[in-house]
Prior knowledge:
This protein is of the alpha/beta class. The N and C termini lie far apart (41 Å). Helix 1 (16-27) packs across helix 8 (227-239), helix 3 (61-75) runs parallel beside helix 4 (108-133) and helix 4 runs parallel beside helix 6 (163-183). The chain has one domain (7-248): NAD(P)-binding Rossmann-like Domain (Rossmann fold). It has helices at residues 16-27, 39-49, 61-75, 108-133, 154-157, 163-183, 208-216, 227-239; strands at 7-11, 31-36, 52-55, 80-83, 94-96, 103-105, 145-150, 188-195, 247-250. This is SDR family NAD(P)-dependent oxidoreductase. It holds the Pfam family adh_short. GO terms for molecular function: oxidoreductase activity.
Amino acid sequence: xxxxxxxxxxxxxxxGLGEATARALAAAGAKVAIFDMNTEKGEAVAAEIGGxxxxxxxxxxxxxxxxxxxxxxxxxxERILVNCAGTGNAVKTASRxxxxxxxxxxxxxxxxxxxxxxxxxxxxxxxxxxxxMLALDSLEDGARGAIVNTASVAAEDGQMGQAAYSASKxxxxxxxxxxARDLCxxxxxxxxxxxxIFNTPLMNGxxxxxxxxxxxxxxxxxxxxxxxxxxxxxxxxxxxxYFNGEDVRLDGSIRMGMR
Length: 259
């Protein structure tokens, strides 16, 4: 699919993997709308790339509907959707306090919050965007649109404390093929990237020695991933009309350990 001149929406586009993808799409000539909760950063990035910012909470039908309405008013119906909005936490399923002996379990509202954002939020944007794409005329090969989702290597080798995060990202992986099959008759492709350890704002609060240790754990190249490398793969998934229904790890061949 040609990117230049095409309308695109990037969720979580104000920072990290989403920001890199929004910038790469704009550099390739796309008309980009950024969905994010961070108004200050989102508006700044949108201004730099000549795009539009939409304050969107992917947990809300109303907010997502309003975001798509604003994006489409500015750029027309999107043919490209990249889902990067997401979050995580680290809580054991059940644990014992080493000092007091108190036994705790994972608060279910905290578990549900991760599922709502990472999994249901992703599907909400897919469903609403693809419904809009159905109204478009088809292009080469009958193509109407391309969707790229963000999972994580934790979908396949989650660590201790990642039950909610791994479940949410495993759900994104699990729905990739059936959603691609749902939409294939309409010329809409769906793929998912499973990033490894990337140098995103999530890493900014970590001590340098911790970041160095994480980088050293990557087999090759021994460094954290660059968000531009994620963006590069996302754009290839969009451009290549034969890329469909795939879940692709982007991780320097790392396989996460127990901890």
